[in-house]
Amino acid sequence: MIKESPTGAEPRAADGGASVAAGSVLHVTDAPDWTGFSPDEQERALAFHHLAAEGAGQYVAIMRVMADDVGGLMSDWSASELAPTIVERTGLELDVDTLEARLRYLVERGNLARSPREAHARTIAEYQQVRARYQVTPRGERVHRLVAEVLGDTGDTAEISAELLRPLLDGLERLAALTDTDIAATPQHEIAERIQTVFAQFDQLVESTRQFYTHLGELLGRVHIDRDLFLTYKGALLAYLQSFVEDVRRAAPRARDVLTALTPRLAQLCTRAAPDRGLEAAGVRRSRGLEVADWDGVALWFQGDGARTADADRIVDLSVEAIRTLVSTINRLSLPVGAEVSRYGDLLRLAGWFAQADDDTAHAIWAAAFGLYPARHLGFVGDGVDIPPTASFWSAPSAQVPVSLRERGERAVRGRSGARADFAAAKSRRLAERDATDRARRQAADELAAAFAGGATAVTLSDAGRGLLLELQARALATPEFVGGGEAAVTDHRLALHAVVRRAPGTVTTVTGRSGRLTLHDLSVRVEAIAADVEEVG
Asked: Do 342 and 230 contact (CB within 8 A), yes or no?
């Protein structure tokens, strides 16, 4: 049995870049300028390196499969196991060698790590397939979650979790009501649950507030806003902002008083909720709220400090400013139709038409949209007014456009008649083309008559002859005689050709040519030449 331990030096990535050995510091030859980064920050920033590398889509697909797997951080994969799974889930096909190189690259950047599980194999072939197994690192998993969140962002935002204000304050008051005796007598897990519930509510409130106001600022700062949509929900938005501001104003003083009473006992609460287990030396952090320093953010949000205004007060100011901007936007959208309004939406739609059009259509759209043509096509002389390129279309003087151009779209200069066009050469070419077509059809007719003169059922024809046969057959099958009696005759006096198509059960007529084999089942075909109609041919 062959066994390989994952310890030891890691191999160098096949596509260049970083190399790493056990117990060594990462060194990246193609890394960006790390000025201002500490060594630890440089090493952590490498976890984002694959997003800008060649084949970034392949790295993201690999991380999607490995980080989104049911086992998550507890599962490990080999390249041979991962390849079919990537094809199944993402449709991306990677051979095992390329996938192995990609996995090593992610190992060197800290997104993946070699699995601590030893690889077992009974044969050399099996050993080569499972010689290395990989699993996601905590850092790689966090980076992947951020990437997935950004890539899946649709531009929408959730409403503010204002309903969390009341339970948040109730939780803070229950903690503040605990005396020293109560803290010592309350079970450790109960205090930890209370603290973590408070912080879960606080984090959700802060995050939803930040995202909503960011989205609102971006929305109100747009040059173009959908007029009908905005005017539809403006009332609801104003009522929503006003309701949230009132909730914050009522909650902020109460929260300040509670935090002032709670601050002296924070150290005792945190010690009781999470006694020192010696895990900090192993790089394991306590849950949010179980460190005294975690409470600084809560205090800053509700109380502020000497150098910073409380975020609760800043939210009130932001809401007032947002309402002012909202009213200004409503006034702008309420302007009469003839006023200077934004054409952003119309220009975007026009740009979409240009993107989908070919050259000729794009020129036609340009002429229809702007009425502008190249200077050599203008049929009149300008007024000679010197207008700077920075002048607005709204205030610049209008050009005097001739009536023929404005009403009939005629850009030609009026004057004497142009020279008469001579179409003799074009007519000669068209006549020569028609004569060549007639000669080809007559040759096909002669070939057809010779092949089917004796009622043959297996013939070889050129493509032209085969096409003429199908033409005659289609004409015959469409006649009432064939539909009613099962036999029809077709005569082409121009080609001096007479064809008879008859329904004959059991008869198979085969036509072979360069384009393939044509088989007519239960049909017999007879073609013969007739005397040409002199008047028709001439």
From this structure: no
